[in-house]
Amino acid sequence: MKRVCFHGAESTGKSVLAEKLAAELRLPWVPEYGREYAETFGTEFTLPDLLAIAEGHEARVRQLEGQGASLALLDTDPLMTAAWAEMLFGTVPPQLLAYPKADLYLLFEADVPWIEDGTRFFGSTAERARFAAVAEDMLVRTGVPYKRIGGTWAEREAQVRQVLAEIQVPMR
Questions:
Q1: CB 77 within 8 A of CB 102
Q2: Which residues pair with residue 146 across a beta bridge?
Q3: Nearest to 136 by CA among 150, 124, 123
Q4: Considering just the CA atoms, what is the radius of gyration of the chain in Å?
Q5: Strand, coil or helix: what is 30?
Q6: 1 in helix, strand or coil?
Q7: Which of 113, 116, 82, 87 is CA-nearest to residue 97?
Q8: Per-residue pLDDT, 127
Q9: What is the pLDDT of residue 82?
Q10: DSSP element (H, E) containing 74
Q11: Quick one: pLDDT at residue 172?
């Protein structure tokens, strides 16, 4: 199964766009497990929490693979959890970098307005810039292919649609 992962700092449109395009294009997708975890257990994260988030997310991806999907959209993955570990604790447990990687990462720039939703941490301009840099560093560090997604909400959507068209996802 090909994996296309939406990656980047908070409040950059990843979740909204992943869900929208998955529905419109009838593609399987894996929602951000970290959000579900935070809404269930709270946001006072520890490193073991982040390891649980990564494992929970990857378990859902494996479940999709077992259903025979040829392509799936991932709303983040363990590399994004690694960025969270760096931001919150200043360290990245090696197991977060050891999970299977997506075939392509779409790196969402932090160039749109911040929207607070009750589970977000890094809303200041400086924090967002640092989180965006850390997120990109995880991609560079692991040598995975990625494309930048930025601009207005509409421009982001158009860019992602173009990328999906390039990898042969039929547009409906």
A1: yes
A2: 105
A3: 150
A4: 15
A5: strand
A6: coil
A7: 82
A8: 86
A9: 97
A10: strand 71-75
A11: 45
Q: Which residues of the chain have pLDDT under 70?
A: 112-123, 168-172
Residue 82 to residue 97: CA distance in whole angstroms:
7
CA distance 94 to 82: 9
Phi-psi region of 42 (alpha: psi -120 to 50; beta: other; left: phi over 0): left
Query: Residue 4's beta-bridge partner residues?
Result: 73, 104
DSSP string, 110-125: S-S-----SS----SH
- 114 near 132, Cβ under 8 Å? no
- The Cα 6–Cα 45 span in angstroms is 22
The residue behind tokens 């935070």 is 38
Please state, in angstroms and rounded to a whole number, the distance separating the CA atoms of residues 124 and 128: 6
Neighbours of 155 (CB within 10 A): 13
Q: Is the pTM of this model over 0.85?
A: yes
Residue 104 tokens, joined: 């392509």
Distance, CA of 142 to CA of 94 (rounded, Å) = 11
DSSP H helices, 42-151, are 47-66, 78-89, 94-98, 125-142
